[in-house]
Amino acid sequence: MTETILSLNNVEKRYGDVPAAVDVTFDVRVGELLVLLGPSGCGKTTLLRLISGLEAPDRGRITSNGRVLSDTGLLVPPEQRHISLVFQDNALFPHMTVRDNVSFGLSKHGSATRNRVVTETLDMVQLADVGHRYPHELSGGQQQRVALARALAPQPKLVLLDEPFSDLDRTLRIGLREEVRALLKANGTSTILVTHDQEEALAVGDRIAVQRAGHIEQIGAPEELFSAPRSRFIAEFVGATDFIHGEVVTDGIRTELGILNQPNGAAVGAKVDIAIRADDIAIAADPNGAGTVVSRVFTGTQNVYRVRLASGQIVRSLQPHTLVLAEGTSVRVRAEPGHGLACFPLGRKG
């Protein structure tokens, strides 16, 4: 059994009538990178503040390695939790050099130990040569690594990252998140990372917890949430998803794209919505085809087509950049998922 470093049990927090955490229960495993994913305002940052001790829950218990951090009438202060929090804006001290920023949380150590830890930590994040500089002299990516170094220097049990890459341009963001994940995993650091970016969550998380309106809707491996979402909300949020209507028949689900041989557990005759993504839809130019190209978005290596079916339903289709079809082209449309598709009762919103 994998050892648990943090446990939240029935944790709740409200701000007036607004729920920020509702009956939240989950564990974080030692060395795990858990991603909290959800839309803005769903309570992700509030959970980090509750875990770090900056906020007290209205009810519920938070424990770390068996030690109670928050409970009714008990709130261990942040500085006694051995948890580091990296804010979205890095919160570096502008009047301090990089070395001084990283050494800030090491005041209990002697100067020799402090210097050694700072040097080792800056070397780990590949910033040993900029220790004399000030934050304004660094790039956005370097500033983020300094903030991470400052969080790692005290050797915390857990690191909390609040949307650490959101202010960076796309190319830098992708490169830095790969570096940070590799660094955290190599260091064996247990981490909770907050993001609203589904691509980022799928790329870096060992597991993902999807949050909506304070509730944890589903938690699991990235592949599990992507291929087996428990709700329509998760299907829409974790991967760009379209929904086509269908009716359960004896040999699958009848749709306007034909019979889909999909296990769904619904009774024959039931009406369902089938979650289908752009890579599940194949198209080919055909003057007798029932689909019509509405638009094409060129992404470099691929084209993303929006196709109107005979019913008026719009679905997306992911195709090679070499397949170029003009708007208005008639196409033959097939569903070729090659895997199970999630199905939901027709019209269900949750």
Q: What's the gist of this structure?
A:
This protein has helices spanning 44-52, 98-103, 111-124, 140-152, 170-187, 198-204, 222-227, 232-237; strands spanning 4-15, 18-29, 33-37, 59-64, 67-71, 74-75, 83-86, 158-162, 190-195, 207-212, 215-220, 241-249, 252-255, 258-260, 271-277, 281-285, 291-298, 302-308, 314-320, 330-335, 343-345. It has 350 residues and is an alpha+beta fold.
What does this structure look like?
The structure is a single chain. α3 packs across α4. The chain starts with a strand and ends in a 5-residue tail after the last strand. It contains 8 helices and 21 strands. The strands form 4 sheets. It has a 6-stranded mixed beta sheet, with helices on both faces. The mean pLDDT is 91. By secondary structure, the protein is an alpha+beta fold.
What string, H for helix and E for strand, traces the elements in order?
Answer: EEEHEEEEHHHEHEHEEHHEEEEEEEEEE
At CATH level 3, the topology of the largest domain is Rossmann fold
Instruction: Count every helix, treating DSSP H or I runs of 4 or more residues as helices.
Output: 8
Domains, number: 2
Kindly state the mean pLDDT as a whole number? 91
Summing up helix and strand content along with how strands pair, one would put the structural category as: alpha+beta
Q: Roughly how many Å is the radius of gyration? A: 24 Å
Assign the CATH architecture of the largest domain.
3-Layer(aba) Sandwich
- The gross shape turns out to be globular
Q: CATH H-level name of the largest domain... which superfamily? A: P-loop containing nucleotide triphosphate hydrolases
What is the chains' assembly state?
single chain
Helix content: 10-25%
* Number of E strands: 21
Overall CATH class of the largest domain: Alpha Beta
